[in-house]
Amino acid sequence: MSRHETWRTEKYWESQGGYLILEFPAIRQDLKNNIGRRLIDGVIILGDPKGVQTGGSYNIANKDIIVIQTKANRLGMYLMGQALFSREIMKRYKPRSIRTVAICGKMDSELLKLCHAYDIEVEVMPDE
What we know:
The protein is an alpha/beta fold and about 130 residues long. Helices cover about 30% and strands about 30% of the residues. It has a six-stranded mixed sheet, with helices on both faces. Strand 4, helix 2 and strand 5 form a beta-alpha-beta unit.
């Protein structure tokens, strides 16, 4: 995650509370089986004590979580795809509920309609 993205993820987390995992390793690399590593920009575990970690593991079974994907630029299809499929990947960890948030630097009102249709929340945080 870049310095243009991390502050956005952390700012969103501040508004939600819970425990934040930056760069959550949703899928671990396994070259033998042709599997690439997949990191999620942020996962918030709602209701857990406030704290932050980068990477590592965390038991999220039966917890309410927010999955976050962040880009500094305008809302686009790349970010939307990351958000949508990050939610699907996180289902394997068996959380009680999953909210999906796409954080971007600028809005695209046409793509926002698609996000709403797929239950992806969008937060706009312009450069500070």
